[in-house]
Amino acid sequence: MATRDRRCNVVIDSCCDLPAELVDSFDVEVMKFAYFMDDGEHLDDLGVSIPPRDFYERMRKGEQPQTSQIPYADIVDAFERAALSGVPTVFLLFSSGLSGTHETAIQVLDDTREKYPEAELYVVDTLQASTAEGLFVIEAIRQLDRGLTAKEMVAWAEEARYYVHGYFTLPDLETLRRGGRIPNMAAIAGAKLDIKPILTIDLSGRLAFHSVARGRKKAIKQLLRIYSEHAVDEYGDMMLVASADAEKEQTALKEQVLKLDKAPVIWSTDVGPVIGSHVG
Fold it and tell me: Does domain 167-270 have CATH number 3.30.1180.10?
């Protein structure tokens, strides 16, 4: 339901990888992606049921999680609740370039509008993932609390999504090889040369190479340099630093960022199980 004198509701999804306590403070609905481990299906509840450290420890011991979209029935239920609430609602969802959830949500939106023609419902493709999506969500909540209408929120979101940037590095090229993004020989050569890829999400919401570095320390320094060069004072007041159970490096990067003149507000968080299943 609408709160804080808001003029619309927002629904987000769990691939924003934000801390659960922060999301709780937003007072918005969260649609949960599903993933599967050896003991069956789980819903991504932002690390409440399975803490990130436990999830990655299970991966280290050989479990290979599989992921899927938000369950179809859950999407239908979320739209049904939004329509019945009578409050204009905007769904801000994980990049369509990385998941079919957005396409499914559009189909459900059409069905819901046919059933409830008076309902004011919208779906926005954030074109983002993980902490970049999380950063987008944080700013969207700011806008929500400033009193934007649903139509104004959609207009804001469809422009603002191009001003959020996320960069990350992987321990090796193996994940990209398994995903068919690079050939086997490139992964083998990269391992011998200790190549660490720096990746980002492009303007179409798809995974893209940014650069490479030799060794983990240089890769972390590269991330710091990218932030220093691209953060703009007008928009660079907030940053999310996340890791897939690499707390020491995460803390070190955060400390280095704080030494820069820009001195943003920084949230530390964890890469969740859905993204973590693919990046390791």
Answer: yes
HSE at residue 244, side-chain half, CA atoms within 13 A, is 20
CA distance 168 to 177: 17
- 197-248: pLDDT as tens digits: 898 999 999 988 899 899 999 999 999 999 888 776 554 567 889 999 999 9
Domain boundaries, the chain: 9-33+69-163, 167-270
CATH no., domain 9-33+69-163:
3.40.50.10440
CB-side exposure of 169: number of CA atoms within 13 Å?
Answer: 26
| List of long-range contacts for 205-212, beta carbons under 8 Å, 24+ apart | 205/95, 205/96, 205/97, 205/98, 205/125, 205/126, 205/127, 205/128, 205/129, 206/95, 206/97, 206/98, 207/97, 207/98, 207/181, 210/167
Q: pTM of whole model > 0.70?
A: yes
The CA-to-CA distance between both ends of the chain, in Å, stands at 37
Phi-psi region of 208 (alpha: psi -120 to 50; beta: other; left: phi over 0): beta
Q: Could you identify the residue written with the tokens 């700013």?
A: 139
